[in-house]
Design goal:
With 84 residues, the protein is of the alpha+beta class. The protein is built from three helices and three strands, in the order ββαβαα. The protein has one domain. Helices cover 40% and strands 19% of the residues. It has a three-stranded antiparallel beta sheet with strand order 2-1-3, with helices on both faces. It is globular, with a radius of gyration of 13 Å.
Length: 84
């Protein structure tokens, strides 16, 4: 499971957190950051080709941080081959 969220406390940048990859050392910090932010999009990615999906998600976050609008339908379309 992942979530794209907007940081509302510091710089209003978009970030992504992959909840299933968190460990004991970082899970509380990352979850709290995401909860303090504004959720933009969330979903699940298949384990198969997960790294490709993460590259697409990273490019979406980059686009958002550059001020571009990325509609949720467009995100779903870009990730359709990687989601259950």
């Amino acid at each position: 499971m992942f979530e794209i969220y907007r940081d509302k406390q510091y710089n209003e940048k978009f970030h992504v957190v992959y909840y299933t990859e968190l460990n004991e050392h970082n899970k509380h910090i990352e979850i709290n950051r995401a909860l303090a932010g504004e959720s933009y999009f969330d979903g699940f990615i298949k384990d198969y080709k997960k790294e490709e999906a993460k590259q697409i998600i990273d490019s979406i976050v980059k686009e958002l941080n550059e001020g571009n609008t990325v509609e949720k339908a467009a995100i779903r379309e870009k990730l359709k081959d990687y989601t259950p």
